[in-house]
Amino acid sequence: GAARLREYAGGERRLAVLGPGELRVACALAGEDARVLLLAGSERDGLSELLAGRCDPPDLLARGPVPGVDLLPVGEGPAALTPEALSALLLWAETRYVRVLFPVAKAGEAAMLSAGLVVTAQSAREARGALRGAKKAGARAVCGVVWADGQSEQK
Known about the structure:
- The chain is of the alpha/beta class.
- Helices cover 37% and strands 25% of the residues.
- The protein is built from 7 helices and 8 strands, in the order αβαβααββαβαβαββ.
- The protein is globular.
């Protein structure tokens, strides 16, 4: 369950979530003193607003469904950011949150973000395929697999 996923994530501050269910992962990782920021896909492109200087990150935050989870709308996601902009956003986030989660479409994005990887999957076959892709892409650390039923397993 949630405690096991927190254990497997260990000291990883940045986690990429491959597959559907990034909100479930964020909720599982949040705890009594563990604040989690999820860069959430959204129609609102908060990253463009931040880069244009029209707002600061706190202006965009939305509370998640459980205490300790905040959502930052990112439009197309962190892959659209320049390295400098991503570094600035991470510096801001990592001083305020225990973990920062990124939804990713491919395991290679986890490697690009220097993030640990959590795979969400509907089946063992789907998980194996994602884990093979992660290995090929050079993902730094696979922290766990979260099944559709909410169970988690270490790779």
